[in-house]
Amino acid sequence: MAGGEKKKTNAGGGGGGKKKEVKKETGLGLSYKKDENFGEWYSEVVVNGEMIEYYDISGCYILRPWTMAIWEIMQTFFDAEIKKMKIKNCYFPLFVSPAVLQKEKDHIEGFAPEVAWVTKSGESELEVPIAIRPTSETVMYPYYSKWIRGHRDLPLRLNQWCNVVRWEFSNPTPFIRSREFLWQEGHTAFATKEEADEEVLEILELYRRIYEEFLAIPVVKGKKSELEKFAGGLYTTSVEAFIPNTGRGVQGATSHCLGQNFAKMFEINFENEKGEKAMVWQNSWAYSTRTIGVMVMVHGDDKGLVLPPKVASVQVIVVPVPYKDADTQGILDACTATVNTLNEAGIRAEADFRDNYSPGWKYSHWEMKGVPLRIEIGPKDLANGQVRAVRRDNAAKQDIPRANLVEQVKELLESIQQSLFDAAKEKRDACIEIVRTWDEFVEALGKRKLILAPWCDEEEVEKDVKSKTKGEMGAAKTLCSPFDQPELPEGTLCFASGKPAKKWTYWGRSY
């Protein structure tokens, strides 16, 4: 995956001078094609689409307003849903003391290489270095043990919207793998395992909805293997996406049942209704700005970004198309009226009135930025009391009478949202290959498939598959065992070990 620091090509910008020069040449096209050089294409799209800007510290990126608007739309949805579940927002510090960090051994071993440390204050060395949170279990749980005393203090259900830092990796990729990213992290404690189990799945369903209903990306819900689960947890569930162009899975979001491991370490005990001392059951769950990178990878094309209407900060861009002797003012007024009508109906619409760019330049610019629907208004449209609508996803054009504007634009946006999901699902499903033997597995892996295989569910076997498939592309591993299990006829054998298979599991390379 390309992550080289890129200079943004300057796509114009009106200069001074008396005579207005209208920029006609687009100069906006991408230099790389998605199917030919995916890594370079991706780097170019996120910069030219004005989602990120490269920063002078490798692996850190500036998230521009075009990105933040998408993040805020998902945040608004998720925040309202968890509040319905009686989960409350809080904020804990960014810094962690080493003593606390090292308390949960398995957990911190999982994160050790990625922890960034503060060692100096001004010119003086700190007596004890301070860690920057890679995740907040060890930050929060000492206080859970203080706040939870009796069964009436349970459940304790907190969430925070924050940033975390994970330093160690070789291939920074905007959104997908960055040294600092934004996320929410939920941390909850219950009196019983049943309550914890129930919440894990309830949150996972919200993550599925973020991907499928908002980002128009199909995901598989399932359980991670013991090897791939959250370090220090009891079990991990996830929603898994897949990028057909690279043949890689992406862990979309995770919902972990931590069991009582952390309760033991941090002494989070309570007196139950019978007056006995008991340990709490805990969960943690998170989704991050990685979601946005998955969206770009799945829907983007050779013209740039393609944004699903539900998350696009601008759903409709209105472009005036005046000709030499046209009633220019009439066209501009019609554009303003169109935007106002759409805004009043709750549709996020804007007009592009910049007079130093030609309509063709503007078309390319807004296509690069992925705006779902373009509305053009020229002299003919003005005369006929209509507008011309052009879809970003398939370039289909349609004339809409201004009298039916809102109704038809709403229908078009819904249709675009659904079409993006359907197209992504069709592409992903075409990549799924069911294999039963090792040879079939190797062949499918070579063809960049998402592999569904019967497995004996043994850690040693998974380690063996990893070491046998190690190569330039990275090793194959389990992505998840889907909750929706196909039938496993008796006598089915594991593709890798030949032992009796216990379940169907998705395998592949991943980000």
From TrEMBL:
Record bears the keyword Cell cycle: no
Classification via InterPro entries: aa-tRNA-synt_IIb, aa-tRNA-synth_II, aa-tRNA-synth_II/BPL/LPL, Anticodon-bd, Anticodon-bd_dom_sf, Pro-tRNA-ligase_IIa, Pro-tRNA-ligase_IIa_arc-type, Pro-tRNA_ligase_II_C
Membrane spanning residue stretches: none
GO molecular function: ATP binding; proline-tRNA ligase activity
Domain Aminoacyl-transfer RNA synthetases class-II family profile: 93-308
A GO biological-process term: prolyl-tRNA aminoacylation
Any single GO CC term annotated in Swiss-Prot or TrEMBL for this entry: cytoplasm
Top EC class, one word: ligase
Residue ranges, annotated region (Disordered): 1-22
SMART domains: ProRS-C_1
Catalytic activity: tRNA(Pro) + L-proline + ATP = L-prolyl-tRNA(Pro) + AMP + diphosphate
Signal peptide start-end: none
Keyword tags: Aminoacyl-tRNA synthetase, ATP-binding, Ligase, Nucleotide-binding, Protein biosynthesis
Keyword Aminoacyl-tRNA synthetase: yes
EC number(s) per entry: 6.1.1.15
Any single Pfam family the record assigns to this protein: ProRS-C_1
HAMAP family, per database record: Pro_tRNA_synth_type3
Protein name: proline--tRNA ligase
Lineage: Eukaryota, Viridiplantae, Streptophyta, Embryophyta, Tracheophyta
